[in-house]
Write a structure and sequence with these properties.
With about 850 residues, this protein is of the alpha+beta class. The strands form six sheets. A five-stranded mixed β-sheet has the order 10-11-14-12-13, covered by helices on one side. It has a four-stranded antiparallel β-sheet with strand order 1-2-3-4, with helices on one face. A four-stranded antiparallel β-sheet has the order 7-6-5-15, with helices on one face.
Length: about 850
């Protein structure tokens, strides 16, 4: 492979099939083995590194195929660092010790990948600089989601989908909103308890809330404007989910501004919270109970009081109980994920240093076979704290769902700002309470409502671009990336190699890749919680774990505009929806290719089995690692679906193929049956026509015989035209029924007055037609003719006989013109 010391021309070395739509390469570096080690150290694979406007792309040297482990979207990169490692050598030649120049790339999707480059070249610097430009674009519009041409949005506007979800919650699902009704303000519907308000239509009341809010019907918009001033960032209590049967609601807000002494109050806020507790349904007396769930530890809530925040006092809110869930803040979640990622990289089968955990340094990471030491090594998974945090979120959500489902209680959930832990708890509790949210369409509605519309700061928490500026001011962005510095797994206590710190000249470039303090995997943690529920209730969810992984990858990749910016207000001002592709449409197109057999669908889904709330007991809330996401890079074989699920999916595929073959065979059989029925009908029709013809022929034969007998009774010889051999007709020989007087064929009436005329020729004994009529009469019929053959005409007797014959002939001519029927010859 040719070696390039600078940025090459990737367009000449990549094919269109290797690049996504709208993707173009900005830097490409060919890298070959360095003293036996390959470019992609994780899997010892040599190849070419490309940096495009969308991703870091690695192509294998031999097959020129894209290597998934070494290919990562730029937005998914949390940080990247230059690393220099000295090769082991004797002390006497330390000044000439060769070094390995590595580039470490840390992803938000749990992977750590390392590339090695040729010493003495500028390959690493070229890729590093390209990553700096690609991961920190100067303008929002430089992101790949805006430069790609796949921005045809046939999907509805997010505002329309939000209002339609409100209609469903109000029991008006048959009504569908449109962008026209929203622009005209005609979407404000209500039922007996709740209504849709447009008080925040211009985002003036609360910049991080959606344009439409679901509030108690008894509260006016003027009261909402007063109540918002008592909550942090004006995020007043509003309804996120409601139960039409019981009247219970699940509401959300930010912390109240009670102050250090917790003596500040607001009548408007107390009335709004009290309105959430409507009277119980029929058959139950009194008002429902209200729980105020503070997601923070109690000490944190008290500490926030020093900055004007705090928590409610139960004495100020009617029939209220306040509980604290003790869920840690965003900084604890970020550090926990870092420890989990390091643990997986250290103990996985494919680590970033290219060595299995079983072989690294003689197996010291597994205690060199000592069971107690091995247990201590594995216990570092628990030290990461990630599973404990997931369990806390699951337990809090299950508790909320149980109170709403079993007690018909109303619930108000908040943390500090009401957009991190609050969103996790409210959306997960809604998932447990409402079976609709456990479908693919319902999951989309849930994410768009509680995460996007209610202002989870994706720009800050997921490290995506943020919106700033207005009017003609350029849209700048700031990237909030990952966590503190990650200790490289390449260096261990007993490792023969050591990592040399970067030189002073390299430090400024590397420091630009360090993360912001606002980054935190809050949304990733919530999706992890959903995967835990999917594991516990495999029959309750329409979507599969594969769907969750693909969905999370799309969110982290910044390939679509749905999850850009920090709020609905920012996305509207930036025009994100109109200018970028839609994530939901992309996932729907993926599923459309295979229908219900696609991997996004859960093959075990049975909606009738769990058609109500899911209320997991505390004993069941024991989370495990999410294999399909956490282990897919470090332990790829273990990350695959279980053998049972894989076998079932394979059997399902075969079953679908057999079902298609069966449907095709049944279709062909129906066509053949239809053709046979058509031919049978035609044959029956032909036989009916034939039988009718035979019957008519028999009638004619009978009539002819009757006429012959009538004429012969007059003393004349008659010759009638010959008829067909009716008795030997094929229909007669086949035993087909002949029509009777009542029916002809299949139910057709027998017409006794069929107009059938029979021509009869009266001939003399002599067939000679010569001579006139008188001669023929005299020769054949005259009784007065003499024995010698002489004619006595015109004697008187001869004239009298002639007159009688003429009269008889006239009668016969008239008789010949009549229709002859069998009834003439039947006995009376």
């Amino acid at each position: 492979m040719a070696t390039s010391n600078s940025i090459g021309e990737p367009e000449d070395r990549t094919t269109e099939s290797e690049l996504a739509e709208g993707e173009n390469a900005s830097a490409a570096v060919d890298c070959t083995n360095i003293d036996g080690y390959s470019v992609l150290v994780n899997i010892d694979e040599a190849g070419t590194v490309f940096v495009t406007n969308f991703r870091l792309l690695f192509l294998s040297e031999g097959s020129r195929e894209v290597i998934a482990l070494g290919t990562i979207p730029l937005a998914t990169i949390e940080k990247f660092n230059k690393i220099v490692i000295k090769q082991p050598s004797g002390t006497w030649q330390s000044e000439k010790t060769p070094t390995r120049r590595l580039l470490q790339v840390v992803g938000k999707d749990m992977r750590i990948i390392i590339f090695a480059f040729r010493p003495g070249t500028k390959q690493r610097s070229a890729v590093f600089d390209a990553l700096l430009r690609g991961t920190k674009p100067a303008r929002l519009w430089d992101l790949y989601c805006f430069t790609s041409s796949s921005s045809n949005n046939s999907n509805t506007n997010p505002k329309v989908r939000l209002v339609n979800e409100y209609y469903r919650l109000l029991g008006m699902g048959s009504i569908q909103s449109s962008i026209g009704t929203i622009e005209d303000g005609l979407f404000k519907l209500s039922n007996d308890l709740w209504r849709i308000s447009d008080v925040n239509a211009s985002y003036n009341m609360c910049t991080t809330y959606p344009f439409a809010l679901l509030v108690p019907k008894a509260i006016k918009d003027t009261d909402l404007l007063k109540a918002c001033t008592f909550r942090a960032r004006c995020r007043l209590p509003v309804i996120s989910w409601c139960d039409r049967r019981t009247g219970a609601v699940l509401a959300r807000s930010s912390q109240p501004l009670v102050g250090l002494m917790m003596n500040m109050r607001s009548n408007a806020d107390e009335n709004l919270v009290g309105a959430l507790c409507t009277r119980l349904s029929k058959g139950r007396e009194g008002r429902r109970k209200l729980y105020i769930a503070d997601a923070r530890p109690r000490k944190n809530a008290l500490a926030n009081g020093a900055m004007g925040g705090g928590s409610e006092s139960s004495s100020n809110y009617f029939q209220c109980e306040i509980v604290f869930f003790g869920i840690d803040n965003i900084h604890a979640m970020r550090e926990s994920l870092v420890r989990l990622r390091d643990y997986l990289d250290m103990h996985g089968t494919k680590s970033s240093d290219g060595m299995s955990s079983f072989l690294r340094n003689g197996g010291w990471t597994w205690g060199r076979g000592n069971l107690s030491s091995m247990s201590a090594s594995v216990s570092t998974l628990g030290d990461s704290g990630w599973l404990i945090h997931v369990q806390n979120v699951l337990a809090g959500s299950a508790w909320i769902a149980a109170r709403v489902a079993l007690e018909s209680a109303s619930m108000l959930v908040h943390c500090s700002d009401g957009w991190d832990r609050t969103t996790q708890l409210v959306s997960l509790a809604s998932l447990l309470l409402d079976p609709y949210y456990r479908t693919i369409n319902g999951f989309q509605a849930l994410v768009e409502k509680d995460w996007l519309a209610f202002g989870h700061p994706f720009s800050d928490r997921a490290g995506m671009p943020s919106f700033s500026g207005s009017g003609s001011i350029p849209l700048e962005l700031s990237r909030h990336s990952s966590s503190p510095n990650i200790t490289s797994s390449l260096s261990t206590p007993s490792s023969p190699s050591s990592i040399r710190p970067l030189s002073t000249s390299q430090a400024p470039a590397s420091s630009n890749t360090q993360p912001s303090n606002n980054y935190s995997p809050i949304f990733l943690q919530w999706v992890d919680c959903v995967s835990q529920l999917l594991r516990m209730y495999p029959f309750a969810f329409e979507f599969s774990s594969v769907f969750l992984v693909d969905f999370l990858d799309c969110v982290l990749s910044c390939r679509f505009g749905n999850f850009l910016c920090n709020s609905e207000n920012e996305r509207v001002k930036a025009g994100v929806f109109e200018a970028s592709a839609c994530l939901w449409m992309h996932l729907a197109e993926m599923r459309a290719s295979e229908g219900n057999s696609h991997a996004h669908y859960n093959m075990f889904y049975n909606p009738s089995k769990h058609d109500g709330p899911l209320l997991p007991p505390a004993a069941a809330l024991a989370p495990t690692l999410w294999p399909q996401f956490h282990l897919r890079w470090s332990c790829p074989s273990e990350a695959q679906s279980s053998q049972v699920e894989a076998h079932c999916r394979n059997m399902m595929g075969k079953y679908n193929e057999l079902q298609k073959a069966k449907d095709l065979a049944e279709s062909n059989a129906r066509e053949v049956t239809t053709a046979v029925e058509s031919l049978t009908a035609s044959l029956l029709n032909e036989s009916q026509v034939s039988c009718s013809a035979v019957a008519l022929a028999r009638k004619a034969n009978i009539e002819n015989a009757g006429i012959k007998r009538a004429i012969e009774s007059l003393g004349y010889k008659v010759r009638v035209s010959d008829t067909s051999d009716i008795e030997n007709h094929p229909a007669k020989q086949m035993g087909m029924p002949f029509p009777t007087r009542k029916t002809v064929g299949s139910g057709e009436p027998y017409d006794e007055k069929t107009d059938l005329s029979v021509s009869i020729t009266v001939t003399a004994d002599n067939d000679d037609d010569s001579g006139n009529l008188n001669d023929r009469i005299c020769e054949s019929l005259c009784p007065l003719r003499s024995e010698d053959g002489g004619c006595k005409w015109p004697s008187a007797g001869c004239a009298r006989l002639r007159s009688q014959f003429i009269g008889l002939k006239a009668n016969y001519d008239a008789f010949d013109r009549l229709s002859i029927y069998d009834s003439y010859f039947q006995p009376e």
